[in-house]
Amino acid sequence: MESVSSPLRCFGECHTAEKYTDDGVETVTSVEQRKVERSIQEVVSVYKQIHSLPPTLLRDQHYQYLKKGLRHLSDAYECLDASRPWLCYWILHSLELLEEPVPTAIASDVCKFLARCQSPTGGFAGGPCQAAHLAPTYAAVNALCIIGTQEAYNIIDREKLLSFLFSVKQPDGSFVMHIGGEVDVRSTYCAASVASLTNIMTPTLFQDTPTWIVSCQNWEGGLGGVPGLEAHGGYTFCGMAAMVILGKEHMLDLKSLLRWVASRQMRYEGGFQGRCNKLVDGCYSFWQAGLLPLLHRALFKGGDSTLSLQKWMFEQQALQEYILLCCQNPAGGLLDKPGKSRDFYHTCYCLSGLSVAQHFGNMDLHHELIVGREENRLVIVFSSLQAPSHPVYNICPEKVAQAIQHFHQLPVPVPAQKEGSSACNTTTDHS
Amino acid sequence: MFYRDRKEWADLEPVPQDDGPNPVVKIAYSDKFTDVYDYFRALLKNDEKSDRAFTLTAEAIELNAANYTVWHYRRVLLQALEKDLREEMRYITAIIEDQPKNYQVWHHRRMVVEWLNDPSEELEFIAEILSQDAKNYHAWQHRQWVLKEYKLWDSELEYVEQLLEEDVRNNSAWNQRHYVISHTTGYSDPSILNREVQYSLKQIKKAPHNESVWNYLKGILQDRGLSSHPGLLEQILELKETHCSPYLLGFLVDIYEDSLENTSGDQVEVLSKALELCELLAQEKDTIRREYWSYVGRSLQMKYCSDDPSTTSSQHESPILGMKP
């Protein structure tokens, strides 16, 4: 285990040289980038002067923020009124990363709430009495798997969930996010994730899906939301993770994907950008950095013998420093970049990314690199204890294993409904 | 005025949200929010298809434009009540201007355009949104759909060039360039390919540290093989003297790798140069990607190093131990 109580990368004398070179040609892109670098420089310089301590994850503060949010949210969250299962997942996953147990009563209350979000026609909605949608479905299933009790598992109506998935499946292999909704690669990940965890995969459910996902990989090496679009970290993670679940990751050009994602780490900030020539954002600590364990495993499976036995192919220390120094709100919660507000989405994905950056593992190996205090260590999002070890689901591996084990005892439901519902189905779907 | 106080709504019983006895992630909705959504739920429950329902959806949307259930219902009403779609276009235009980073608003616009079968306002509208944020992902997605669906390619390359004039680092614009050309002339025609290579080299000379243009250059040449493009290596080596960057060095690695892959015969020199560059990038020029460049070096070595036992790779051999670490 490697401990970095030694000098931080961002304190190094070579760090300033990593600042953006605009070649004397100022554009909106370079101006914005330099603004961010200046704010990072400010944070680092303040840290140098004030703190003699190593970087510290503000565990207690984050815990209080999360604990409160699990019950009550201010009216600032009205904009997430159609994403409440997400709030459950972001908060529960953050708590599990911090190794904070969820009291049994609250866990049960979450289960009951998510049951109210389940649509009578299958899948989960953003709130009670809303229409089913793949994103809250993904979040609800993940949240229930984190809780991991029989009560939680029993909430999911697997038969209806399968029919919901078929109802959003398109002939070209893609999925719309909800009846009458939009197509993009997030939907394939949401569908593959819930179908694999709850054991409702049928031979035809994902027919043509891998081919469709491959068509989202572009000239940059990353994946866009739909074919033709710019490569983007969120969509790339969804596409790659879906392919891993479907066992088809080798259909992608992994070398190009690797080059693209490795190039997304910012040389000065240490965090990741979502797209080339855009700004760093703490959430990409997971969407982008989380690709490297997936790629590592895919390349290893493909027979690559030159992979590192200790490190992911990104600068783990630099990412940890970015998260710890630049993405923490002193009152609890994590964020995009200095100057931005905290929220539960960024709390979840900054912590998830921190965990990826702290833990390397492949098959029997586990190598840790913890920046700052020992206590900064988070729970792993993958485990070397079981062969398929990767942050595909972004819930802790024990919970993944437990859920899979539970649902595999149950038979795969027989589909009552075939795919082919049109994306323009306008019948109201409500309770 | 709250809906609960309106006479014209007195016949409808509002449906409060039922979060259960011990709610979680409970949002402290404002009175207005609660009022509007209590009535929305009532309308939904009764499957009411009326003009007052239609009006209410706009209020619900204003309170939470991400509520996809409301948007869906609004679309049902648009059709059931045979509402004026031109007016709906005006409505959605205003909403998008106000909240351009929302999925639902763009999807709604797409539906209305499809129903009207009229894309005539789209390119100008999207350009307006892009003038405020030239990288808005939803805007570009909508634009690509319009171009493809209605075959409106004619002026797009010109538009892309205008955006690149304004910001040569706009990666979305570079992507759009690739999209337009791929869907029109394609890159197979040597004169097109050459035009694009020349355009790229010109932009590189202006701003050598712009990653987008280097990625574009590789992107358009990689299928044909970087090392097969005549004179390219020489041009890049020349640029190395005056316009060097980590991207240029990475590009050289790519050319050398392609050469190793596709050229027969002795490639010891090429391999050696490639490895040297990987080392330079890992140790000095692109240290944030140290692990990546080290891996690339090891992979090249593994793949192309001579297996002849009489030739030992001196690169990583320990002189004392006489064996590789």
From TrEMBL, chain A:
<keyword id="KW-0597">Phosphoprotein</keyword>
<keyword id="KW-0808">Transferase</keyword>
<comment type="function">
    <text>Essential subunit of the farnesyltransferase complex. Catalyzes the transfer of a farnesyl moiety from farnesyl diphosphate to a cysteine at the fourth position from the C-terminus of several proteins having the C-terminal sequence Cys-aliphatic-aliphatic-X.</text>
</comment>
<dbReference type="GO" id="GO:0008270">
    <property type="term" value="F:zinc ion binding"/>
</dbReference>
<keyword id="KW-0443">Lipid metabolism</keyword>
<keyword id="KW-0677">Repeat</keyword>
<comment type="similarity">
    <text>Belongs to the protein prenyltransferase subunit beta family.</text>
</comment>
<keyword id="KW-0862">Zinc</keyword>
<comment type="subunit">
    <text>Heterodimer of FNTA and FNTB.</text>
</comment>
<dbReference type="InterPro" id="IPR008930">
    <property type="entry name" value="Terpenoid_cyclase/PrenylTrfase"/>
</dbReference>
<dbReference type="GO" id="GO:0005965">
    <property type="term" value="C:protein farnesyltransferase complex"/>
</dbReference>
<keyword id="KW-0479">Metal-binding</keyword>
<comment type="function">
    <text>Catalyzes the transfer of a farnesyl moiety from farnesyl diphosphate to a cysteine at the fourth position from the C-terminus of several proteins. The beta subunit is responsible for peptide-binding.</text>
</comment>
<dbReference type="GO" id="GO:0097354">
    <property type="term" value="P:prenylation"/>
</dbReference>
<dbReference type="InterPro" id="IPR045089">
    <property type="entry name" value="PGGT1B-like"/>
</dbReference>
<keyword id="KW-0637">Prenyltransferase</keyword>
<dbReference type="GO" id="GO:0006629">
    <property type="term" value="P:lipid metabolic process"/>
</dbReference>
<protein>
    <recommendedName>
        <fullName>Protein farnesyltransferase subunit beta</fullName>
        <ecNumber>2.5.1.58</ecNumber>
    </recommendedName>
</protein>
<feature type="domain" description="Prenyltransferase alpha-alpha toroid">
    <location>
        <begin position="57"/>
        <end position="370"/>
    </location>
</feature>
<dbReference type="GO" id="GO:0004660">
    <property type="term" value="F:protein farnesyltransferase activity"/>
</dbReference>
<dbReference type="Pfam" id="PF00432">
    <property type="entry name" value="Prenyltrans"/>
</dbReference>
<dbReference type="InterPro" id="IPR026872">
    <property type="entry name" value="FTB"/>
</dbReference>
Automatic annotation (TrEMBL), chain B:
<comment type="similarity">
    <text>Belongs to the protein prenyltransferase subunit alpha family.</text>
</comment>
<keyword id="KW-0637">Prenyltransferase</keyword>
<comment type="function">
    <text>Essential subunit of both the farnesyltransferase and the geranylgeranyltransferase complex. Contributes to the transfer of a farnesyl or geranylgeranyl moiety from farnesyl or geranylgeranyl diphosphate to a cysteine at the fourth position from the C-terminus of several proteins having the C-terminal sequence Cys-aliphatic-aliphatic-X. May positively regulate neuromuscular junction development downstream of MUSK via its function in RAC1 prenylation and activation.</text>
</comment>
<dbReference type="InterPro" id="IPR002088">
    <property type="entry name" value="Prenyl_trans_a"/>
</dbReference>
<dbReference type="GO" id="GO:0004662">
    <property type="term" value="F:CAAX-protein geranylgeranyltransferase activity"/>
</dbReference>
<dbReference type="GO" id="GO:0005965">
    <property type="term" value="C:protein farnesyltransferase complex"/>
</dbReference>
<keyword id="KW-0808">Transferase</keyword>
<dbReference type="GO" id="GO:0005953">
    <property type="term" value="C:CAAX-protein geranylgeranyltransferase complex"/>
</dbReference>
<keyword id="KW-0007">Acetylation</keyword>
<keyword id="KW-0677">Repeat</keyword>
<keyword id="KW-0460">Magnesium</keyword>
<comment type="subunit">
    <text>Heterodimer of FNTA and FNTB (farnesyltransferase). Heterodimer of FNTA and PGGT1B (geranylgeranyltransferase).</text>
</comment>
<feature type="region of interest" description="Disordered">
    <location>
        <begin position="306"/>
        <end position="325"/>
    </location>
</feature>
<dbReference type="Pfam" id="PF01239">
    <property type="entry name" value="PPTA"/>
</dbReference>
<dbReference type="GO" id="GO:0004660">
    <property type="term" value="F:protein farnesyltransferase activity"/>
</dbReference>
<protein>
    <recommendedName>
        <fullName>Protein farnesyltransferase/geranylgeranyltransferase type-1 subunit alpha</fullName>
        <ecNumber>2.5.1.58</ecNumber>
        <ecNumber>2.5.1.59</ecNumber>
    </recommendedName>
</protein>
<feature type="compositionally biased region" description="Polar residues">
    <location>
        <begin position="308"/>
        <end position="317"/>
    </location>
</feature>
